[in-house]
Design a protein that fits this description.
Layout lengths: L1 H6 L4 H16 L6 H8 L15 H13 L14 H19 L35 E3 L9 E3 H12 L3 E4 L6 H11 L10 H24 L14 H14 L4 E6 L4 H7 L5 H8 L17 E7 L2 E7 L9 H15 L8 E8 H6 L1 H9 L11 E6 L9 H4 L16 E5 L3 H18 L3 E6 L17 H9 L3 H11 L5 H17 L37 H10 L11 H14 L7 H14 L4 E5 L14 E2 L6 E2 L12 E5 L5 H11 L6 E5 L10 H8 L2 H5 L6 E5 L14 H6 L7 E3 L4 H13 L6 E5 L13 H6 L5 E2 L12 E5 L3 H12 L4 E6 L1 E3 L3 H8 L7 E9 L5 H15 L5 E6 L10 H17 L1
């Protein structure tokens, strides 16, 4: 350090050098030279100790102050900090930093003023060895953006309190990026968190508050006691959303996609989206407007176009169930799809907004998963605006020690260093300010940001609920609390911005509009630009059909097969992977039977050649969990990657294949959102093992299997779920086929168990080649990926189609067949080989490759030649209380009844079990032998 004092001044690069050294010192004191370590040990500390979590800006300011005040004509000695004023100067800088770090803990952010917080020692003058006696002393402000370099201590303290301890509590010092922190300080500090608004802006805020309150009052009077999950107590959400949409449009956004749960949803739909109030009233009155099962009004989505200073903006509200935060990753997927459609890799044109409840934000694990995806390659969307409607109670749980273990409900956002703005919902001007800063931060840094709108719930969990039974003190306070509009109107009256007549006129005008059934969103575009919409018209109104031409020209097939085996010159492929690619070249030449990996790759290649984009994600999709895919090659020299499927042609559609982070729930929800937004793409999520889908059951139940019936939401998502009983124990055998089949109805999904490479080739192609958009659940194989008998030919790919049932009438003397075994999946090969070992000529095996919608006609055709049947069994590897038996037997019986009414269908499988499979390989083998023998021999 002494060398630095003797040879350079603490300006510019030297100051940065000291700061970098100090950061290293915080992480590991032994990693800096001894002379620096000794000096840092003697420097002022925030609190009792220095750790990597303690901000080091006071140290930086200390060096900067010394460098400024010692002149540039002589070296600066550490010992020069000797005068009393200089010592106090350092303490003032330390105090400034304390307000930046902990000021939010003393902020007036609770409109009810119910929760008394402990005093913050760091914000007390005496903590920093200062006192009121120093109020008139002038000190340097260091890095404070207060518009002056120095000020009296009293003024500094007052400005710090106004900036950090009033109705805005800014939490951002956990961010490690200095540029981001300085940017936020430059936005917050010059205006002391409370910029002066022009009269038109203030009147507009009041008008939006009038709309928010007016709708709730009207609904409360007209539909007393009906559930609406009103925004009463959090009316500032409406001016917030208005500000957000208008500012996003001004910044160039073309779409704003919003996900939110119940509270305030109807108000947002009417007052921001422009949903016609008359339509909402019809829903309250129970008018039937759809032919499907439908959903309650506060789960429904909506879309519209509004005008902003930057042009027309499309708004979309995502449909969502009552599973609270699960809609958040769905929104992210929809946003990413829209960005991909616009070829926007930065995220400027489509803005995601997630509106949360405080209890759910803190309590639901999918919130963490959604934050975790925010900066990953596969899932980033350029930053999300998170708005927490903080009612300070979750249903009936309000005590902090019951609701969470963190100080704030928003603390989970710190994991991605998102800035968090806690703001008092009864100060709508402060709400407007933090909204501006939040959106601008998102646009500047393409990262997530959180607005914690601290408010209250004027009614109970819903309008029929009585909250005082569990929250007596809170609701006594709420009962006496003036509404946000009343408080703000009084504020404007006192400031002379409006008079009482103007305030009253606003209320009357809004009510008249409601009664007339007029649109009440001021910016609504009544004749929207349809180019902003996703066009689903080609995919609407199609009935289910098994027929689909998925054939491919043989010449094109071989050209593409050779193309996907090419690698750049000098690209060194790992030895085993090189062998896979050499085998694929032989397959392309017709010199080798085709395996699963080749056929799947060719399905993708041919679809890309036909103009269909493809997105494939999952925990190991690049290589494939079982090393069969190797779609992403890794250079053994420098670890660079090459994806042959991305290099088929210069003008090919987008091919996205990315490994996901270790999540199922949020990732599957994201892919669902993506698939519901780009109808012409093949969108696939592959589970590492099929049972991993258990972790995403909410998505499967609430969106994938029921979204079309509840909301009319079409989705062509494909799920590849490795499934097969191969002795890997209870956790890695079953994709829970029975759960999917139990949810099958109304042609909602497709469930398939393909057993040959050609079948997966045509199945994947069928998913996008036909205009029907239904989720596809594939019970993918594991051992079949390399099974010597699970092969196909080039002709099977070029000329074939997906077969929902595969019979073997042509391979046998049908008249000799007395026993018929129906099956699906891997067990077919066990049955086939055991039959050959035992020389059974009177047993036929028929594969049902699609279990839903069940192909009754195809099964009838496959068994039509078996006129002498005496017994029929369904054989499965799963325990008999699992698998396809219970949900599919009636379909099989329907076919058998028409074939021969005297036939009885029996079932063979593993014994009923609580777990999917046994854990001991010897027991597994015994069970497998037993079920195969029983199926063949009875």
């Amino acid at each position: 350090m002494e060398l630095l004092w003797k040879n350079a001044h603490l300006y510019g690069g030297n100051l940065s050098y000291v700061e970098q050294l100090y950061e290293t010192y915080l992480m590991d004191p032994n990693a800096v030279p001894q002379e620096w370590r000794e000096e840092f040990d003697r420097l002022p500390k925030v609190g009792e100790h220095i750790s990597q979590d303690v901000p080091h800006s006071p140290i930086r300011e200390h060096f900067l102050y010394l460098s400024k005040n010692q002149g540039q004509s002589r070296p600066v000695e550490v010992s020069s900090v000797s005068s009393e004023h200089e010592k106090k100067q350092v303490r003032v800088l330390r105090m400034i930093n304390a307000y930046r770090v902990r000021g939010h803990q003393a902020a007036d952010i609770d409109p009810l003023d119910l929760h008394k917080r402990e005093p913050v020692p760091d914000l007390d003058l005496r903590f920093h060895e200062l006192s009121e006696a120093d109020y008139d002393t002038v000190f340097q402000l260091g890095s404070l953006f207060f518009g002056t370099e120095e000020a009296p201590l009293k003024q500094i303290v007052e400005d710090l309190k106004r900036t950090y301890c009033t109705t805005v509590g800014a939490e951002y010092m956990h961010i490690v990026d200095t540029q981001e922190k300085r940017w936020l300080q430059q936005r917050i500090e010059p205006v002391r968190s409370h910029p002066a608004l022009e009269v038109p802006e203030r009147k507009h805020i009041l008008e939006r508050l009038t709309a928010a309150e007016g709708l709730e009052k009207y609904l409360g009077a007209r539909y007393a006691g009906a559930k609406r999950f009103g925004v009463e107590g959090g009316e500032a959400l409406i001016p917030l959303m208005d500000q957000l949409v208008q500012r996003a449009g001004r910044a160039g956004a073309k779409e704003v996609i919003i996900g939110m749960a119940h509270r305030g949803r109807l108000n947002v739909l009417v007052n921001i989206f422009g949903k016609n109030p008359a339509e909402l009233f019809g829903e309250f009155e129970g008018k039937k407007v759809i032919t499907t099962s439908g959903d309650v009004k506060y789960h429904q989505g909506f879309s519209s176009n509004v005008m902003t200073p930057g042009g027309e903006v499309h708004l979309a509200m995502a449909f969502n169930p009552s599973h609270l935060e699960i809609v958040s990753p769905v929104v992210e997927g929809s946003v990413r799809a829209r960005q991909d459609r616009r070829q926007d890799s930065i995220g400027s044109t489509v803005v995601p907004v997630s509106i949360h409840g405080d209890a759910a934000f803190a309590g639901q694990g999918v919130v963490m998963e959604t934050f975790q995806m925010s900066q990953t390659r596969a899932y980033k969307t350029g930053g999300t605006i998170h708005i927490v409607i903080n009612n300070q109670v979750g249903f009936t749980t309000s005590r902090k020690e019951d609701a969470r273990s963190s100080e704030y409900c928003t603390d989970v956002a710190k994991m991605v260093q998102a800035p968090i703005f806690h703001v008092n919902g009864d100060d709508p001007e402060a709400v407007s300010f933090v909204t501006q800063v939040a959106l601008d931060y998102r646009n500047e840094f393409k990262k997530d940001v959180v607005i914690d709108l601290v408010c209250y719930r004027r009614r109970g969990h819903n309008e029929a609920d009585e909250p005082s039974g569990t929250q007596p003190l809170m609701y006594a306070k709420i009962k006496a609390q003036k509404t946000t509009r009343e408080l703000y109107a009084q504020r404007l009256l006192e400031a002379g911005v409006i008079d009482a007549d103007e305030s009253k006129a606003m209320e009357q005008e809004y009510r008249r509009a409601l009664e007339n059934g007029d649109h009440v969103a001021k910016a609504l575009v009544l004749e929207p630009n349809t180019e902003l919409f996703v066009d689903w018209r080609p995919y609407l109104g199609h009935e289910w059909s098994f027929e689909c031409d998925t054939s491919v020209n043989m010449k094109l097939l071989q050209e593409l097969a050779n193309k996907v085996c090419e690698t750049p010159e000098g690209f060194v492929v790992q030895r085993q992977v090189q062998k896979i690619y050499e085998d694929r070249k032989r397959m392309a030449a017709g010199a080798m039977a085709l395996n699963w990996g080749f056929a799947e790759t060719m399905a993708y290649a041919t679809l890309l050649a036909e103009g269909y984009p493809i997105r494939l994600t999952g925990q190991d999709v690049g290589r494939g969990t079982f090393s069969h895919r190797h779609a992403v090659l890794h250079n053994q020299k420098d670890a660079s990657c090459y994806v042959p499927l991305k290099n088929l042609a210069e003008d090919q559609p987008n091919m996205t294949i990315l490994d996901s982070y270790l999540s199922e729930e949020a990732v599957l929800a994201f892919e669902y959102g993506y698939a519901t937004t780009i109808p012409n793409a093949l969108v696939i999520w592959e589970a590492q093992f099929g049972d991993f889908a258990n972790g995403a059951q909410v998505v499967i139940d609430q969106f994938i299997t029921s979204g079309e019936q509840k909301w009319g939401r079409l989705c062509g998502l494909t799920m590849l779920l490795p499934h097969g009983f191969e002795g890997q124990g209870p956790e890695h055998s079953s994709a829970r086929l029975e759960r999917f089949l139990q949810m099958c109805a109304e042609h909602n999904i497709q469930v398939c168990t393909p057993t040959t490479p050609a079948q997966i080739f045509h199945l994947l192609r069928r998913q996008v080649a036909r205009p029907l958009r239904k989720p596809l659940i594939v019970m993918s194989p594991k051992s079949l990926l390399r099974h010597k008998q699970a092969t196909s030919t080039l002709e099977d790919l070029a000329e074939g189609t997906f077969l929902p049932v595969i019979g073997e009438v042509d391979q046998q003397d049908a008249a000799k067949v007395k026993r018929l075994v129906l099956c699906g999946g891997k067990v077919y090969y066990d049955l086939y080989n055991r039959r050959a070992e035992q020389g059974l000529t009177d047993v036929a095996i028929v594969r049902i490759e699609q279990l839903y919608p069940f192909p009754e006609a195809a099964l009838a055709e496959a068994i039509a030649g078996y006129t002498n049947l005496e017994s029929v069994v369904w054989c499965q590897e799963e325990p008999m209380n699992q698998g396809a038996w219970y949900c599919s037997q009636h379909h099989m019986r329907n076919v058998l009844q028409r074939h021969n009414p005297a036939l009885h269908l029996g079932g063979v499988g593993r014994p009923h079990a609580a777990a999917p499979a046994v854990g001991h390989i010897s027991v597994h083998i015994e069970q497998q032998d037993a079920l195969v023998n029983e199926a063949l021999n009875g």
